[in-house]
Amino acid sequence: MDTDQEKRESLRLGFVNPATGEKGKITLSIVALDTFRQAIPNLYAVTLGEIKGLFTAGELNLMLDVSKGLLLTPTILGQHLSHEVEDGIDLSGLAKKWDVNRDALLEKLGRLSTTQIAVLETVLNDFWYGTDETANAEALLEALG
After folding, report:
1. Cβ-contact 77, 118 below 8 angstroms
2. In this structure, is the dihedral angle defined by the CA atoms of residues 122, 127, 130 and 134, taken in order, positive or negative?
3. DSSP-assigned beta bridge partners for residue 16
4. pLDDT tens per residue across span 32-47
5. Which of 18, 33, 92, 132 yields a CA-CA distance of 20 to 30 A from 85?
């Protein structure tokens, strides 16, 4: 049986693989992965609800502007929007174009979790590359505004 010190060390490192007792390694079972896959639509909806109403129309339009032409991949999802927004403002003058406060928008983005950013990125990406022919900025504003 693990001592209290060993349990604290295990928590510090992350997890203990019950099959091997190896600390700090995460081994997911097929059941765990399948459960997570099934939960994704609900997690997406909950996260979308968390970010709904956080951004002004100008901020959303600015983020749409910088997301056009970006290729999202699973390995970078949730990691690049803030940088793209900052570059769009600093290099292309998008804050003036969309009447957005640079620092306020970057602060909002900085407070979001990686998951919240990933959902925001997918919504923006879907606007440009989704299969809905009727997608428009008003629909996006309704979904997120």
Report:
1. yes
2. positive
3. 23
4. 778 888 989 999 999 9
5. 132
